[in-house]
Every structure is written in structure tokens, then in C-alpha cells.
Design a protein that fits this description.
Elements (H helix, E strand, L loop, with lengths): L11 H4 L2 H29 L3 H21 L6 H15 L5 H7 L1 H10 L12 H6 L2 H12 L8 H30 L10 H4 L6
Helix pairs in contact: 2-9, 3-4, 3-9, 4-5
Length: 204
């Protein structure tokens, strides 16, 4: 009767040389970079289509009209800006971190009002502490503060969110410029701007 001897446990990490491990790590990082680039390009391209600009413009006009019907006071620049950002976040359909941050900002503002008494005072960071950080890290922190909801993201996720956010803002500027030009011609008396006029400033 044959007895099967237990095979010794293999330790692949011990047999692999550091050079091979480095190559594998490099390949993994390259795959990650290429994946983030593809994802970022797909997101940015959607904001460059005339269809997306048309949808955003229509939603923005409806939201501003709805606001004017609900309130008797005329809309201020801040009201128009907040409405434009909320409509932009809705157009992103919550697929990005910055859009979700904009959508929940009003709820967060209401919650902060109730928690003012419990707020702890934070000691501001001194200039010496700020200088200790590397230049690239300081710039990334500044970029994270500019993009809504992206203060604590990794490098590639932050770049992906920032590129999508910038592309969305560019589309927003084009759409609002087209609406402003349409209204400046005296055609804003209740008529819906045609789609070709709203998409006239699209740059591919």
C-alpha cells in the first residue's frame, strides 16, 4: 500500500527575484493608469456632445422657471449659480463623486446649522506644517479643495474626477452663453430656445 507523502508548501514570493517582482508591479501600475485614462476620456467625451448640452440647457431653463414661479422675488446671481450647479450634478446622474457632493450640499448646510453649538474649534495649521509637505502634495490638496467632495481621494481618482468636473464646467459655460445670447436677442418671452441655438457653441 502506497503512502502519499505531503508535498512541501511552495513559497512563490521567495523564489521570485526582486527584478521580476518589480516588472510585475510596473505592469499592474500601467494597467491601472490605462484603465483610469479610458474611464476619464469616456466621462469627458460625454460633456462634449451637443445632445448633452441640449439636455442640460433644457433642464436649467425649466429649473429657473420653476424657481421664479415658486418665489415672488427675482433670482439673484447666487440663486442662478446654485441652480446651474445642481442641474449640472443631476445631469451627471450621480456617477461622479463631485456630482454627489453638490447634490447633498444643501442637506449638509441644513445639518450644519443645527450643529453649530457642538462644533469643535480646530487649530489652524501653521505655515511651518504646510511647508513640510512636498510641492506636488500641496498642489494635490489644493486641487482636492477645488473639486467638490474630492479632498481625500487618491492621486489617479482625483485626476479623473477633476478632468470630468472641468469638462462639465466647460459644457456649462457653453450652454449658459447660448442661453444668454438667445435672451439678449429679445426671444425670452416664454418661448423655448431651439435645440440648434442652445448647441451652437459646441466645440469638438
Amino acid at each position: 500500500m502506497a503512502y502519499l507523502l505531503p508535498l512541501p508548501e511552495l513559497e512563490p514570493s521567495a523564489d521570485i527575484s526582486p527584478e521580476i517582482q518589480r516588472k510585475k508591479r510596473r505592469k499592474t501600475e500601467e494597467k491601472s493608469v490605462s484603465y483610469h485614462r479610458v474611464q476619464g476620456n469616456q466621462r469627458m467625451n460625454r460633456w462634449r456632445t451637443g445632445r448633452e448640452q441640449q439636455i442640460y440647457s433644457s433642464k436649467l431653463i425649466k429649473a429657473l422657471r420653476l424657481r421664479s414661479h415658486r418665489t415672488s422675488s427675482s433670482a439673484t446671481g447666487k440663486d442662478v449659480r446654485d441652480t446651474a450647479y445642481r442641474v449640472l450634478a443631476v445631469s451627471a446622474k450621480g456617477t461622479t463623486r463631485w456630482s454627489r457632493a453638490i447634490l447633498i450640499s444643501r442637506l449638509s448646510a441644513k445639518m450644519r446649522k443645527h450643529k453649530k453649538g457642538n462644533r469643535k474649534l480646530r487649530k489652524p495649521a501653521s505655515n511651518r506644517e504646510k511647508r513640510k509637505l512636498p510641492v506636488v502634495e500641496r498642489k494635490l490638496m489644493a486641487l482636492g479643495r477645488l473639486v467638490p467632495g474630492c479632498r481625500k481621494l487618491s492621486f489617479w481618482n482625483l485626476l479623473e474626477e477633476a478632468s470630468d468636473y472641468i469638462a462639465a464646467l466647460e459644457m456649462q459655460v457653453r450652454a449658459m452663453t447660448a442661453i444668454t445670447e438667445f435672451l439678449a436677442l429679445g426671444n425670452g418671452g416664454g418661448a423655448q430656445p431651439p435645440a440648434d441655438r442652445l448647441c451652437s457653441n459646441v466645440n469638438f
